[in-house]
Amino acid sequence: MATARGDGSAPSSATSTAVPTPRQRDPPIFSAASSQDIEDWLTTYERVSTYNRWDDATKLANVVFYLEDLARTWFENHETEFVTWTGFRDRLRELFGKPILRKANATRTLSMRYQRPGESYPAYIEDVLALCNRSDPNMSEQDKITNITKGIAEEAFQYLLLKDPPSVAAVIDACRTLQDKRNTRLLQASSSSPSIFSAPDVDVLKSMIRELVREELFNMTLRSPEAANDTPPVHAESPSSRTIQTLIQEEVASANLSYICTSTFSFAVTSS
Q: 173-184: string of b/e by CB count within 10 Å (b at 16+)?
């Protein structure tokens, strides 16, 4: 039975629970290094601020913790001059923006951009589009398509030649379809064929190679007068073992070495 509270009110039947607060995100550090782009950093800072629910006053109060080196020194030297977030942002752009240099760097990078080994089509295309926007915000669809196709992987290039997509969106859809077909094909191939390098097969192969090496070394001793009366070991040959033995013979011959073998197949190697 619930007891009455001292103030005469009825006891609470429900326990209040704290509402979990989303974990705060941290924007990247800006140091004004030549490799950093101020517009990219500002865009990310604004996006993180929105997630963290920072208003303009909080943005300005927190920004010092995400500045380093030259950018931090500049902020501390002029901190009293920054009254609003907008004023600080505009001053930051004026000093570190360098729009002409930004455009030149993007144009140069775009001219050399190609799809890297292992890079997916979406990752490549989105990076090219970002460079296009930096190089020329008003770039036409056809120029964007040209920049995408000039560095894309050969199989995708041939596929796009057949499809002749009229827009960037069509290029993305075509490459997504091609990526899905590749993934499906690779998945089917890997599930339908056993692994060539399974552990038991490797052990068998090692044993075969050891036996073939011993036999080849013994055969070399038969070509010397000292081993004329020796008997070679018995070895059941197969087409695959003969192929491996041929390779071993070629490697031994190309090494230009002479072997002195004992009856137990231990040997010393000396340069001839």
A: ebbeebeeeeee
Greatest alpha-carbon pair distance for the chain in Å reads 117
Tokens (6 digits) for 66: 């995400």
Sign for the pseudo-dihedral over CA of 54, 56, 62, 66:
positive
Q: What is the pLDDT along the chain (272 residues), one digit of tens a residue?
A: 445 455 555 555 555 566 666 678 889 999 888 777 888 899 999 999 999 999 999 999 999 999 999 999 999 999 999 999 999 999 998 888 877 878 888 899 999 999 999 899 999 999 999 999 989 989 999 999 999 999 999 989 998 998 899 999 999 999 998 888 877 876 665 555 555 444 545 555 566 666 666 666 666 666 555 544 555 444 444 444 455 556 666 655 655 544 444 433 444 444 44
